[in-house]
Hints:
By secondary structure, the protein is of the alpha+beta class. The chain contains two helices and three strands, in the order βαββα. Strand 2 and strand 3 form a beta hairpin.
Amino acid sequence: MRETEFNISPPGLRGLNRLATKLNALMTGKQIADWHLGRWNDGVQSKHGILFDNDDDAAVAKVNCDGAKGDLAD
Length: 74
């Protein structure tokens, strides 16, 4: 598995949920395969690792989801 760091916006669980929603949409659209939660990479919960099976899925997710903000209701 390959861990990729994502910026979380807003920081914390609300932002992580927003990222998970976007990753699940990519899975549903068959743009990526499975993903798994990694770990928080900083003390303020603004960066989180996500595990992917391959580099291609990680790259697609990074382009489409990093910072995952703006699309969902606050």
